[in-house]
Amino acid sequence: MRVLVSNDDGHDSPGIRALAAALEPIAEVWMVAPDREQSAASHAISLHRPLRVHAVGERRWAVDGTPTDCIYVAMNHFMKDARPDLVVSGINKGANLADDVTYSGTVAAAMEGALFKVPSIAFSLASRTRTWDFPHAAAFARKLVDSVVARPLPKGALLNVNVPDGPVKGFALTKLGKRSYGQVVDERVDPRGRRYYWIGGDEQGHENLAGSDCNATYDLGLVSITPLNLDLTHHKLLDELRGLRIEGHEGR
Ligand code: MN
After folding, report:
1. Which end of the chain is more exposed for a tag (fewer CB within 10 A), N or C?
2. Is the pLDDT of residue 201 over 80?
3. How far is the CA of 240 from the centre of ligand 1 (A)?
4. Which fold has domain 2-177+208-243?
């Protein structure tokens, strides 16, 4: 089995090291990852500047680009003649739950793998104690990979996995929940008298939604496994919009 490993925290982050090390005994591990942190890069791809790549080991490269750039370069260049059987991304330093998946570079690397029709899994460590025990999360990642080898995922399947702190008590198959942050825009003044802004805010909590990734990870202490779909079509709304009238234009 050939596995491509990437992430958004950078090629030398402890999370990706732990993930690669856990998979080495069961797979031929290739790594193409950003040369620095790219958290919250989402699914951006660099089309208007050169990408510099340097080798950091056997079958391992660091790219001065986004997680998506890494997967794209891996698939179309380094692994062009030896495409991976599985893409794994992470292990992210921090949860990727609920709406986080739309901002996450960790999840985007797995999305890009899925677009190449390769089963892909994003792993995140949802540590509330900030102890960051990546080997513990990597041990679970290895077991999940073992299980999808035994029962292969469909082509282009995409799983988003969040591992809580502490010994793994079990897992739950979940849907995306709802999470809120402070929505802070902090205005400050730089030494030259110009205003600048820091956006973001601390996590405020999550809605109590049964079966959600937030509930599983934070309330139940379970590993959350959410299958994601890259078809963003809102099928229910598509049906509801049938009969939409726009004056002077015919709808089909
Ligand atoms: Mn990250």
Report:
1. C
2. no
3. 38
4. Stationary-phase Survival Protein Sure Homolog; Chain: A, (3.40.1210)
